[in-house]
Amino acid sequence: MSLAVETTAALDVRPLAGTLGAEVLGIDLSSPPDATQAEAIRAAMRDHKVIVFRDQTIDRAAQKDLTRVFGPLLRVPFVEPMADDADVIAVLKEADEANVSNFGGAWHSDFSCLEAPPAISVLHALELPPLGGDTLWCDMAAAHEALSPGYRAMLAGLSGNHTGRPYGTKAALKVPNPSRSIKMKRNDPAADLDSVHPVVRLDPETGEKSLYVNPVYTSHLSGLSREESRPILRFLQEHATRPEFTYRHRWRPGDVVCWDNRRTMHLALNDYDGYRRLLHRTTAAGEVPIAAA
């Protein structure tokens, strides 16, 4: 990928890291993107997997308009949305919430436990700590490409079981809420069911092959025991999150960041006790994962 500025008819796209991440300039998201802008935004997402819009002043309706550029809105399960807007989740941790886990605080791809997991997620930063609270993304396509040919061949025939059981009725250990400010839905029978997805996923638009496992939802590899699966899954996580495959975003108020859940994992850092942090999240629906040939 070239680090030069890419100019389209609608916007400028400036890469932010070696394999993924780009800043998109030349657009005010307070109005719905027109057809040319929408296609340029989708192209930036195809090329960079994580795209950043700085200094935006938008309301929830405008955020949803941006999300629809990527597909229909998806109301994700297991997390309570805002009381007055079922399409938006308030990602909030209050200043007095100390020594608690945070929402999204482990490497994951959003809700990969669903039969058709989300395609694109969108976060809009409203209130931020003076320091801390960064988000990291890793490039699962670059990580796959960097594997040896033999390892890629081994993975090509494998599938992973993805489970939402921490939210279900059969969870051996009920996971506590990350904070009182984010309400998680528990005892949902739908969460007890596994979804089986290919370990190497084909992107339907770009043709890229990406690793599609993550430590939050992938319980084991299909046909293998958890014990047999553990070293493979551990290796893939450690490999995919190597620094050269990552982009770290330091948030500023007004930032809008969109990312492709099909080709990335992400992690929210929890290093800002004593400060309030509020972002609004929306989600675009995705397709059933396709196995790479």
List the helices and strands and how they pair.
Layout: E1 6-7, E2 12-15, E3 22-25, H1 35-48, E4 50-53, H2 60-68, E5 89-93, E6 120-127, E7 135-139, H3 140-145, H4 149-156, E8 159-163, E9 194-198, E10 200-202, E11 209-211, E12 218-221, H5 226-240, E13 246-249, E14 256-260, E15 264-268, E16 277-284, E17 290-291
Parallel strand pairs: 3-4
Antiparallel strand pairs: 1-2, 2-3, 4-14, 5-16, 6-14, 6-16, 7-13, 7-15, 8-9, 8-12, 10-11, 10-17
In short:
The chain has 293 residues and is of the alpha+beta class. The protein has helices at 35-48, 60-68, 140-145, 149-156, 226-240; strands at residues 6-7, 12-15, 22-25, 50-53, 89-93, 120-127, 135-139, 159-163, 194-198, 200-202, 209-211, 218-221, 246-249, 256-260, 264-268, 277-284, 290-291.
Strand order of the largest sheet: 1-2-3-4-14-6-16-5
The count of helical stretches stands at 5
Mean pLDDT score: 92
Structural class: alpha+beta
Name the quaternary structure: single chain
Give the fraction of residues assigned to helices: 10-25%
CATH class of the domain at 82-251 and 259-291: Alpha Beta
Strand content: 25-35%
CATH architecture of the domain at 82-251 and 259-291: 4-Layer Sandwich
Kindly describe this structure:
- The protein is globular.
- 18% of the residues lie in helices and 26% in strands.
- It has 293 residues and is an alpha+beta fold.
- It has a domain of 203 residues: 4-Layer Sandwich (Double-stranded beta-helix).
- The mean pLDDT is 92.
- The protein is built from 5 helices and 17 strands.
- Strands 1-2-3-4-14-6-16-5 form an 8-stranded mixed β-sheet.
- Strand 3, helix 1 and strand 4 form a beta-alpha-beta unit.
